[in-house]
Amino acid sequence: MYNKIIKLIIAIGIIAFAVYQFTEGYIGNGIALIFLSLVFIFLYFKNEFILLAFLRLRKQDFEGAKKWLNKIKNPESALVTKQQGYYNYLHGIMVSQDNMNEAEKYFKKAISLGLSMDHDLAMAKLNLAGIAFSKRRKQEAQKLLTEATKLDKQGMLTDQIKMMKQNMKQAVGPNQHYGAGGSVRSQKRRGR
C-alpha cells in the first residue's frame, strides 16, 4: 500500500509529464495523463482498501472486510484524518459482533477523528448508544440517541432509532416497592 504522500508525488509527476506532452504537441497523451493523475488524487482522498472493505461489508462478508482493513499497516501515515475515522468506524462495526468494549473504543475514536457523512456519524452514535445502554449508562445512551436522531436527516435509521427507544422504555419499567403497592384486593387483605 502506498503512503498518502507517495500518491500525491505520483500525481504531481504525472501532471508534470502531461504538461510536457502538451508543450510537445501531444494533446491526446496529455489529456490521458491528466485523467491518470486524477486516479491517484482520488485514491489520496478515498483509500482503496477502505473502499474494498466497504464493498465486502455490503455483502455481509466480515472476514473479507477484515482482510482488506488488515492490509493497512500504519493508518496514521497511510490515511488522511477522515479515512482514519472510517478505518476505526469499520473496525467498530466488525468488532461489535464479538467485543463491545473494543467496539466502543473504535466508535469513539471514529467520532473524534470525524466521518464525512452524517449518516455514518449517526450510525456510529447509534451503536455507541446501544453499547452505553447495555452497560446501564442510560443518560449517555439517551444523549447519543438524540444526537443520532438529529444527524439522521434522510430517515435511513428511523426504524433502528425507534427500536432502540422502545427497548429503553421497556427496560425502564415502573419501580415496584414490595408491600406498598398492588391491587385493591391485596391491600384489603393486608388490612389497609
UniProtKB/TrEMBL annotation:
InterPro entries with a match to the protein in the record: TPR-like_helical_dom_sf, TPR_rpt
Record keyword GTP-binding present: no
Signal peptide: none
Keywords associated with the record: Membrane, Transmembrane, Transmembrane helix
Top-level taxon of origin: Bacteria
Record field: transmembrane: 5-20, 26-45
Tagged with keyword Coiled coil: no
Spans annotated as Disordered: 170-192
Protein name (record): Membrane protein
Organism whose genome encodes this protein: Algibacter aquimarinus
